[in-house]
């Protein structure tokens, strides 16, 4: 599972936009958005760079990524 630190996520609408963007390429993905921490946890077989691109194209800069268990 990857965790992305995302800038500018402040509301449920932001979380929904990001989740929908990721689900366009992987409908079975597991996405957990934590607004207070401004993180998005994604369990997907899609490449990390593709997930970053999808988040950033939604209007939210990715500040960092880490692998979590």
From TrEMBL:
Q: Give start and end of each HMA domain.
A: 1-63
Fetch the InterPro entries from UniProt: HMA_dom, HMA_dom_sf
Alphabetized CDD domains for the sequence: HMA (cd00371)
Q: Which PROSITE patterns match?
A: HMA_2 (PS50846)
Instruction: Tell me where on the tree of life, at the top rank, the source sits.
Output: Bacteria
Pfam families recorded for this chain?
Answer: HMA
* Stated name of the protein: Heavy-metal-associated domain-containing protein
Q: Which organism is it from?
A: Leptospira ainlahdjerensis
């Amino acid at each position: 599972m990857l965790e992305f630190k995302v800038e500018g996520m402040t509301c449920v609408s932001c979380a929904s936009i990001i989740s929908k963007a990721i689900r366009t390429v992987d409908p079975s993905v597991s996405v957990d958005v934590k607004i207070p921490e401004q993180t998005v946890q994604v369990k997907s077989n899609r490449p990390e760079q593709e997930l970053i691109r999808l988040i950033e194209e939604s209007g939210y800069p990715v500040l960092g990524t880490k692998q979590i268990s």
